[in-house]
Fold these 2 entries.
Entry 1:
Amino acid sequence: MALPFFRKGKDKPPSPAQQPAKAAADDAPITETLLTMDMGASGIVVEETSGAPQSQVDEAAILYASGQADMAENILKGVVATGDRRAWHMLFDLYCIQNREKEFEQLALDYAVRFETSPPIWQRTNGNGAAKSQQAQTTSLELPGLLDKKATAALREGLAEVDKKATVRIDFSRIEMVDESGASECAQILSAARKAKRKLQVSGVDRLTALLQDLNRATHSRAVHWLLLLELYQTLGQQEAFEDLAVDYAVRFEMSPPSWSEVQAAEVVKAEPAAPRDDALQLSGEITPSNDSALQQLSSYAATHNEVLVDLSQVTRVDYGSVSQFISVLMQCLGSGKPITLRGHNALIHELFRVMGIDQLAQLTPRHPV
C-alpha cells in the first residue's frame, strides 16, 4: 500500500516572513514521499520522489497546516468560483475558527444562491473550549412526547429561570400529541417570549407544525390548535403561511384571528444529536510539534483499545510538521491490527489528511461530507 505525503524543507514550508508569497510557490518545490507498508512482513519501505500538490485545494490545505492561513484563504477565494464544494467548506471552517461571522454569513448567502441548498450554520470554534462555552450560554428546553399543561408549565418555568438576554433553545422534536390545555398554554408562552424579545432557537418545529396541520384538518378541530399553529408561524417569521391560516381561521370559527407583528424570528436549528455512546478519544486545540500532548494521548489511548476512535471536532489545525508523527502513530495501530476512525474534523484538516494519504490509513468521517 503506497501512502503519499508531502514534505517540504524541514517538514514545513518557509513562512511569509522568510520568503515572499510569490516566490514560495515558484522557488520552493515540494517533495513527495511515498510510504509503502508491507503488512505481511511487518515492515515499512520509504521511497522519495519529487512531486507537487495536485490541486489548489491541496495547496491551501498544506498552507493552512503550515500556519499560513492568509495565503490559504486567498487561494480558496479563487477556487470557490469554480464551484468546488471542498473549497467552500474549507472557507466556512476557516471563518468559524477565526470568528469572522460577517464573512461567514456573506459566504453562506453566496453558497445558497450557487447550490440552491441550505448553507452550513455558523458555529464559533476555537478548539480551546470556547465553542462549548458558547453552547453552555444557550439553555436547551426539551418538550416531552405529550404537550399538555404539565409540559408547558415546565417550559414556562424553564424560560423564567434563564437570563432574559440569553438564548433559549426549545426542542419540539419529541412531541407526538398535543392536548387543548397544552396548545393554549404553549401559544401563550411563545407569544409572551416574542413580545419580550427573547432570543429563541427552535428545533424539531417541522414535526409540531405537521402534527397541528393534521389536527386542524379534522372535522371537529379545536380553535386552540389553530391558534398555536398561528403563533408558531409568527415565531418563525413565516408571514405568508400565517396570513393564509388566519383567513381560514376566520372562516372556520367566525372569529377575528390574531394580527401579524413584525418581530425578529426565532432561529431554526437542527436538533442536537444524542451524545455518542462510545469512549472515543476527544482531542482539541492545535496539534503542533511544540504542543504534541494530543499525539501522546493518541498513543496512550491506542495502546489500551482494540479499536481506535478519535473525535477531532474541537481540533482547529493539525500542523504540517506533526503529520509524520501522526502517521507513525496510526501505522503502529494498523501494525497491531486495530481499525482506526477519525471523525468530526473540519474541512481544512480533512483535505490535509487526504493529501497526506491518511485516508488510506483510517476511516475518515469529516464534519462536512462532500
Note: Residues 109 and 119 are 8 Å apart (CA to CA).
Entry 2:
Amino acid sequence: MKESVADLPSENSLIAASKSGDTDAFDQLIRRYEDKIFRLAKSVCSGLPSDAEDVYQETFLTAFEKIGKFRKDSNLGTWLYRIAANLCWMRHRKRKREPFVPLLDDPARAGRAAAGDVKDWTFEPDEAAQKREIKETVRKALQELPVDYRLVLSLRDIERLSNEETATVLGLSVAAVKSRLHRGRMFLRDRLDAYMSGRSA
C-alpha cells in the first residue's frame, strides 16, 4: 500500500534523527532534495559533467558531516543550496578559469536593464528540453558567464528561488542579486537573439 503524504515523516523529525546518526533518516532527506541539488550543480558546472556529479555527492557528504550544526530555525533547502554553491565556487577557483564577458560590465547596457529595457524573461527547463538546439545555445551561453552570475541565474530561473532566498544562499545583498540577474539574463537573451537571427537569415 502506497504511503500518503500525511504518513511520511516530517522534515524536522528526519533532521532530528539524522543529528542522532540515523543514516536511514538522512537518506530520506537526500531523496527530498537530490534532484534540486543535482540540477543546480549541472547548470553551474555546465560543460563539466564530472564536476556536477562530484558537487552533488560532496554536498550531501558535507551535509551529513555538518548536520549536527544545522539550526532548525533555518531552511534546510537553503542550507543545502549554500553548501552546493560554495562547492561549485571552490571548484571554479581551483580551476582558475574565469571567462571574460565585457557585456556584463557595460554601464550603458546595465542602465537600460535597470530602466526596464530588458524583458524579465525566465528560462523554462521543460520548454527548452523540447527544443534541443535552444537548450544547447543556453548551455553554451551559461558556460561563458562568470560563475557568480551563473549561480544567480541557476538559483533564480531554474530553481525558482526568490531574490531574498538567492541572496541568503550566496551571501549577497538583494540589490546585488537583482543586478547580476538582470545582466545575466541580458547576456543570455543576446545569445538567443543571435541564434534566432542566424536561423532566420
Note: The radius of gyration is 19 Å.
